[in-house]
Amino acid sequence: MRVVGSIFSVILGVGAVTAAAGVAYADRRSEVCQRWAADRVDRSEGTWTGDANTCDPGDVTEPGRTNALKILNLYRFLAEMPEVTTDPVRNTKAQQCALMQSINGGLSHTPPTTWKCYTADGAEASGKSNISGGKGVASMDTYMTDRNVAQMGHRRWVLANSLGPVGLGSATGSCFWNLNGTGKAAKPFVAWPPIGPVPADVFRVNSLDTAGWTIQSDTINLDTATVTITDAGQDRPVTVAVLPPNYGSRYAIKITPSGWTSQAGHIYAVSLQGTSMPVAYTVDVVDCSTVDGGTSGTGGAGGTSGGVDAGAAGRAGASGAGGAGTSGGTGGTGASAGAGGAGASGGTGGSGTTGTGTGGVAGANTGAGGAGGAGNAPPGAGGVSGSGNAGTGDPTTGSGGAGAAGRSGSGGSDDAGGCACTTPGRGHHSLPLGLGLITAAAMALARGRRHARS
Prior knowledge:
By secondary structure, the protein is α+β, with helices and mostly antiparallel strands. It is built from ten helices and 20 strands. The chain folds into three domains: 19-182 and 416-446, no CATH class; 186-289, Immunoglobulin-like (Sandwich), CATH 2.60.40; 302-403, no CATH class. The strands form six sheets. Strands 1, 6, 8, 9, 12 and 13 form a six-stranded mixed β-sheet that branches. A four-stranded antiparallel β-sheet has the order 3-4-2-20. Strand 10 and strand 11 form a beta hairpin.
């Protein structure tokens, strides 16, 4: 028996293709781009309401917990895993964990009773969580990167078959309760980067070509796997490392590109041999600026008929800002002059990672052309400010409208904190992304628990 990753592997060349399957694949490409853009627009952390001086764990105001869960489920969606929910009891305990991890100068899965603000509930959550020196929302990206973490356990728990319900707590540090889940996804294997279409931006956010690709399974023994990756039939050399068992999965391997980096527009075929059953799938690295976004995009303001090609489907950029389709952007109603006049045609929405939009063209005696749609390049290293091009105005009635500014990349993550290593003890090390984190599996193994689910 050969395990093929999903219908998307079949479409990309592992098997026969039907017209309906081709349409489904195109829809999936559009869907992953739109979901990646939409779910990452708001990554605000909320505000911690507690008080370290009185050992009040407080809570995190909305949308902090909602956003952390949203990013967690975004990653599971891309990997074709079921979404999870939070449990209020686990949230409460995770919040006590977050207080303890935030104020004691280090991270620990086994906090001593001498710790400031120690509670039994907080200690329990510490032993059943990924813990981080950063806040809850930003830490989800860091868990999925898991750079320089030998077990890659944080990523594996995010993608675990057994995950859910979870507990999420955040102060200046954070805790993500993931053990003792009741999830029953039962997927034969889960890969990251995932099977099928994946936004190219994922490779940047997760530093995948340096942190490593991973494959995890509860049923397929990967310990003796040999891995081949090809790009258009050309071998791409990799190094393979077997990861310790029972960190969110029974088996796992890390695959690191050697001398090459993943490129948008390329499809990588991954094949495993020497396993209990062969595995084959493809990874389609998608430049989301080139993918039709349909009516879910946001049209550039300015035209009464708006959208790309006056009502045709818009194009979603990496930030999800695309033409609005049949309704398009809204135009101003100035009768003679002023910003936002109703143009003869609508401006196109921003697209691509730079979020560049084009202004609407002004109609006669209507004032300025509409502003281009705002780009939404997410914060992080290499972020580029998006901007809309100025609208074209009628010289007798008003000036062209200025394009709306895109979201500029800020370089680096929003939060920084200490980190604890995943080896025994409370050693301290610094991760490249600036957020400290530690997985619960090391101490769980010491207690003899089995966390993987078949």
